[in-house]
Design goal:
five-stranded antiparallel β-sheet, single chain, Pdz3 Domain, 2-enoyl-CoA Hydratase, Chain A, domain 1
Length: about 400
Amino acid sequence: MRLLPLLLLLAAAAPAAEPTADDYRADARSIAPMIQQTYAYLDRFAGGTPPRSAKLDAEAEQVHDRRSLLLYAERALLALADHHAITGASTAHDWAIVPSYADLWIERRGGAYLVEAVRDGSPAAAAGIARGDRLTGVGGVPTEAAVQAFWGDLGLPVTQERASFAARILAAGRRDSPRRLEVGRGSAPPRTLELPNLYQLPHPPRPPVTTTREGAALVLRFNDSLGDDSTIAAFDSAMANARRPVILDLTDTPSGGNTVVARAVLGWFVARATGYQVHNLPAEERSTGIPRQWVEEVLPRPGKRHARPAAVRVGRWTGSMGEGLAIGFSALGVPVVGDPMAGLRGAVYDERLDRSGLVLKLPAERLYTVAGLPRERFAPIPERSPRSRRSRPANP
């Protein structure tokens, strides 16, 4: 009578069997259907079908172990041309994640690859690269040729959106390698620059929130900390002494975060329950035929209320939850000023492959402002110059 429970206990404690080559291959084959079911932005693609190529399909059939599955999964997600779709694991030689480990924002305009933003304090900024410069070459190859090769390697044609996406990745480089970029300005000959990859730089610890003064305003800068629960206490402490207008600086939040931190921040600026963003889950409608959508609200926090003027500052390195905070403040009547944000699509869900356990991070929820504008299309008020920054009262 006692033997059966003991055997069950031993079975539960036994390590799981290593997946076979067939298991890894089955997981590779399951990625395309998983994207088709889960990815929230199928309307980006002709016929609502994610991009595939004969080259990628052949690669799926060659998967035989964890490394080859990871490499295939990364390439299958690259085909989406979506910076928010990534794998949960990585290798040292992978492309840098954009925008978290990028210092240049590149867009193809009229055949040229233009620098639209440079990250403050980055190697690119230190090298003198400026907005309006042109990325003319990567690794000794003209940028257009490098972009064509990037997509040709995946068996896919180049489009305008794919060109800009690839140029940003190429400019960010491989995680284990320095970058060799050619940058032109005006009619001067392009400069060749050797820049470290951001993964290779030291990352000294920073406080979640730092405060400075800007005229009569107190500036609270989030140091890529919207996923850190300790940010709540740091923000609360700074706000407890804010007897003046505040500017919330979200220009260094590329890695996103979570709604707990976001709602804690927004809670200082509302006197009643207030909607701040709209969620839509296409996967549920695909599986049930019944659409699902809801409004997420922020609630006031007892004893914590800032009724003085406020403004929010954003830029290309405002990503994901930083963008959610921006549209939330806009819903409260707080002006959001600065450059366009990263435009990362949706809320990401972790989707685990059945046999290997490899995680794919896919944008599964569509996100909107409370007025119905897709979050990725939200445009801040342009900031004319550092001297013209203004704030006005919140009006929740």
